[in-house]
């Protein structure tokens, strides 16, 4: 029996996660499908977005999305993320682009082994301190260095933009209660979390299995996002606050979009995650010449405790002695 509707794209036909748009944020519109494009309709007209180019579609307040639109996103491996006002709150996400469990198996193995988890965490910190030796530092020492680095980053951008900076202070339930720079930081970080979450899910890793952060459904999202804040979201937030914007949320999202596109973040994010989870040893510089190639394996296997994995899709009952 033929399944009705347009067949989903083959894996080889899909755009890689790092080659897609970082994110598109929509609010107060109806989201539907027109052929292979997502449409967003409001009182200003209709916007067409090719589904194959999307990394993540952020659905804000007032959005209504059709089943056909969600089918198209799923078939093209795009991630739909439902968010709150200004894109600050995260609620849910859609389907993964990944076909293989290789990354998540490697992630689970590393996070479950104390020494391997520490190796990955140290590798993450080496990415922030490329000129320093972090091999023998404890997690407490690494956290102290990171805290000092972030405080220094805030002070430097405050001086650069002339913003009066006191500390990071925000209420996740009330976006407008913070001062302009804290509002901009919240909006910028929310965009970055959405991008990173979409990449993690798209390439088949788990957002929950973090190495520095732990105990939260997005622990690994915060791990990876922290690698880029000093370069992307913190300077953007201070620039927006200094511009005396009258719509901090929207202006921050546009600025993050421009900064992300210019810095090829998706490609870096995919490469960093794969290097952290799959490289043979987390001892050298994370940006060295070692690159793991994705095999694109779409084979289902059956686990065997005493031997090699078996290929799925066949009946092994005849081999059993009843």
Automatic annotation (TrEMBL):
Member of which family? Belongs to the CRISPR-associated endonuclease Cas1 family.
Report any one BP term from Gene Ontology: maintenance of CRISPR repeat elements
| Protein name in UniProt | CRISPR-associated endonuclease Cas1
Does Translocase show up as a keyword for this record? Answer: no
Q: Where does Mn(2+) bind?
A: 146, 213, 226
* Quaternary state and interactors: Homodimer, forms a heterotetramer with a Cas2 homodimer.
Obligatory cofactor(s): Mg(2+); Mn(2+)
- Output the Pfam families linked to this UniProt entry: Cas_Cas1
Record keyword Nuclease present: yes
Annotated function: CRISPR (clustered regularly interspaced short palindromic repeat), is an adaptive immune system that provides protection against mobile genetic elements (viruses, transposable elements and conjugative plasmids). CRISPR clusters contain spacers, sequences complementary to antecedent mobile elements, and target invading nucleic acids. CRISPR clusters are transcribed and processed into CRISPR RNA (crRNA). Acts as a dsDNA endonuclease. Involved in the integration of spacer DNA into the CRISPR cassette.
Q: Which GO terms describe its molecular function?
A: DNA binding; DNA endonuclease activity; hydrolase activity; metal ion binding
Question: What keywords is this UniProt entry annotated with?
Answer: Antiviral defense, DNA-binding, Endonuclease, Hydrolase, Magnesium, Manganese, Metal-binding, Nuclease
Listed transmembrane segments: none
Q: What is its EC number?
A: 3.1.-.-
